[in-house]
Amino acid sequence: MSKKKIDDIKTELANALGAEKTDFRSVMKLANELSKFDEDYQRFFIDAKTVIHLGRDSIKDHTTALIELVKNSYDADAYKIEVEILCGQNNDLIRVADNGFGMTKDELLNNWLRIGFSGKRKSKVSKLGRRKTGEKGIGRISTDRLGSKIELITKSESGGIVGLKVDWDEFDVEGKEVSDIDVQITKPKSINVPKDKRNKVGTGTEIRITGLRQDWTSSNIEGLYNELSALTPPFNQQSDFKIDLKNNIAPEFSEPVVSKYYKTAEIDVSAVFDGTDEVYYSIKDRHSNNEVVDTIPLQQFYAKTKVSEEAETLKCGPIEVRLMFFLRESSSVVGTDFRLKDLREFLDNNAGVKIYRDKIAVKPYGFPKSQLGYDWLGIGEQKARNPAGAGRGDEFAVSPNQLVGAVFITRDNNELLTDSAAREGLVESEGFYDMKEFVQATKRLLETHYGKIYPSVEKKKREKKRVPAQQESERIKERLTHVKKELSNIQSEIKAEAESVKPSLFLKPLEDSIKTVDEVSKEVEITITDLLNWQRTLNGLATIGISSAVFGHETEGSITQFQGSTNTAQKLLKITPPRIEKAITELDKSLRYSKKVAAWGAYALTRVQKEKRTKRNIQIYKTIQSVVKELKPAFDASAINLTLNGENLYSSTYQMDIETILVNLLTNAYTASLLKGGERKVVVNVDLEEREGVKGYFFSVSDTGPGIAKEFEKRIFDPLFSTKTIGANESKSVGTGLGLTIVKSIIEELGGNLSFSKDVSLKGAIFKVWLPKK
Amino acid sequence: MAAIAIIDDNPDQSTTVQNNIEIGLLELGSELEVITATPFREVQEYFSFIQDKNVVVLILDEKLNDQSNDDVGPVEYKGSQLISILRKQLKDFPIFALTVIHTDEDLTSKYSEYDDIIGRNEFYSDSEKYIPKFWRAAKNYMKENSDAFSEYNRLAREVSAGISNPNSMKELQALQAKLELPFSGFDDRNAWLKKYEEQISELEKLNQLLKSKLEDS
């Protein structure tokens, strides 16, 4: 049976191959059918719907789908891209046209039609030195998200014009294989791409999408505009890359896309050297409305920026420098329409100081991934040499990825800045070095200004944070109530007009609500982080208080002994005859006790250091060892033998939390040990311990005290409950009842566990802290 | 020679106080000796220490239970606990508290049992006020003690000579309580005599009985 079938297919295939006009479709279908009879090997085949799912699942929404097409144009080194969105009756169209390098027919058929192919994998940088932005080779199938029909025309320098048409709806049919669907190859006579004199051949790619899947709203267009502006360099003067957006939904965004990210710059500095001996400069910062503007002699400009002492003129000729300094943090986008993600993308695309000659960027200066050119000013090296933060004022240095800048020169005015023989870069002449020095001086001007305003910026931030909790809570509640009301209105409207409901009508309010929830969530997150940090500090301070109350006697005793011995030594030297030997002994004691006092001071001062409140990889054993060492004199003074056993281990955590836990447990152990005479011991053990498959570590504190009385076991973690008394048989409490409450709350926050029992060896209590190792 | 004794678990502290008092007494022309001791494990040892060293003033630290001066570890009592035990016998003995935290509640609650509670810091800065106080307390104690001993000896002689009256007996008992003498009291002696006499009378009776038996036979 199958033998006959195979023969039939073979005959049919032979006929198809032998026909005068080859029916490729039949040939492929028959060949596929025939291959199914292969007894030894078989192949995967793909359901056409998979392609549709892949596109739809990989792309969040239609704005993202369109951005992917624009990114492809950017990666194709286009100087200009036209994006058109037209929505209306029988007039739906999305058009993306660029004047990039286009595709040959071969590239179109073998690369574009190959799902998952991405040129980015071969090279991450385009020929023009752009960092490629496209993703995973799925941009083209994401067009299904935009519309059902796609027509692509492309023109390359060597391959002429070629095109294709795809009807995505044909893929959306059950049981069809990808190879069953025809993609029509077209041979258009012309292509409509943006003109540019640098692109003499007129290469480029034009994509027209019709049968739009979704209505575009004003809000969508605004979001698209903002995302497109992240790809656009911030300097209007140059013509490296431009996007022209046209639409009939939100006419206010029908214009060339201009980067507005300069609004998020902390500092924006311009400096212009007039070619003789004067410098005009302006400094703007986003924290004050003032703009500092001045014109000063070049020598004074250099003296001010401490770059060079002798510079009467510059051999490079007149130049203009603009530098913008950005912070890559959420505070930079507060009060703007931008998201932090967009700002970071903008900085990834545009960080660096570029040189523009007659509005054209000179490679490789300021181009990312260009090994020699990206940081041609040595900004990274300067930062590495001097990593001081802005808090150090004058010494502050920016990082390369925080700076976006441009140096503007012309061929006519800067004759000494000539091209190198390799055609990439400028000859490193005296003129070049003078230009470089001028840019560095401008950078210093920026850094000095930021160092100067930083204290007031930080103060403002702190003041802003000091919104009373009640007020903040009311504000958040109010905003969420508003969102709830909006959503409830939408729900009612949908119910009322179930038949004629148009999803597009509800998109805007929905998006606004989601945006509000998103903003509120971020604010809440920041508030919680701040509160936790605050709590951490308070816990630390409370612990100093608790330990000071307990070890206070020892400190007070040391101070008194120090004063007493000094005083006595004086008396011993004043009497006749002076008692020299005894005076020396007293002075020795004086010195010893002064050291004890100083050690206690150091202990208290180092408890809440800022770096201890930052999460980082710390050496747990060493941290514990340091606390034990600091408290040991107090234990020794009460004849308590404090010992530590264990080995070093690392974990990413807050050093202050570990110290706070330990100090509280040691304070308790100290008090407990004093309740009994005889041999007093406190032992601290540290080691790794895995619990239920989770890697972790523990530290325990055992003592020779009386242990935890049965009746107190359930109450010891209650706030304000304390068993600390002066003597074993006395009822007077000297504890605050906060120590173990603090310990427990920290351990819970760190995802750990606290247990206690009777120590078998020392006969007193043992408190064991287990924490996950991160 | 009579002595002022300082009891402290920290020898650094006690020797500094010792030096101060010695200088102060020198300036006052006193011949009192100043000695130091670490807390005794058994409270009874304080009585023999006072007697053996002829101690006339005791200066106690409050936190006697901090430091260990032997292999056993610190003692289990504090100054404010020790004073109550000492006062059961040493009713009028001069005992001062000298400590860092002189405002400690446990200590101040025993104020009536001490002759004074002095902050260590105040002592160092104002020793010319406190050292004469110790000296006066020592002199008064020694004077009262020697008068009481003289009176005691006189009354005891009267009793043994059989010329005492009931008032003399009461006075003698009061002096005995004040001086806390380590020998048995008159009550005990009377009881012994009574018992002795009872035994004698038993022997007398036995003697009589034997005599009558012999006579009968």
Quick structural gist:
Chain A has helices at residues 2-18, 24-35, 48-58, 62-75, 105-112, 143-146, 218-229, 298-305, 340-350, 379-385, 430-465, 469-496, 503-574, 580-606, 620-637, 655-674, 739-749; strands at residues 80-86, 93-98, 147-156, 160-167, 184-186, 204-212, 242-247, 255-256, 267-273, 278-285, 291-297, 319-325, 352-357, 360-362, 403-409, 615-619, 640-646, 650-654, 680-688, 696-703, 753-758, 765-772.
Walk me through the topology.
The complex is a heterodimer of chains A (774) and B (217).
Chain A: H1 2-18, H2 24-35, H3 48-58, H4 62-75, E1 80-86, E2 93-98, H5 105-112, H6 143-146, E3 147-156, E4 160-167, E5 184-186, E6 204-212, H7 218-229, E7 242-247, E8 255-256, E9 267-273, E10 278-285, E11 291-297, H8 298-305, E12 319-325, H9 340-350, E13 352-357, E14 360-362, H10 379-385, E15 403-409, H11 430-465, H12 469-496, H13 503-574, H14 580-606, E16 615-619, H15 620-637, E17 640-646, E18 650-654, H16 655-674, E19 680-688, E20 696-703, H17 739-749, E21 753-758, E22 765-772
Helix pairs in contact in A: 1-2, 4-7, 8-11, 12-13, 13-14, 13-16, 14-15, 15-16, 16-17
Chain B: E1 3-7, H1 11-28, E2 33-37, H2 45-52, E3 55-60, H3 79-87, E4 95-99, H4 105-108, E5 116-119, H5 120-125, H6 127-161, H7 166-179, H8 186-216
Parallel strand pairs in B: 1-2, 1-3, 3-4, 4-5
Helix pairs in contact in B: 1-6, 6-7
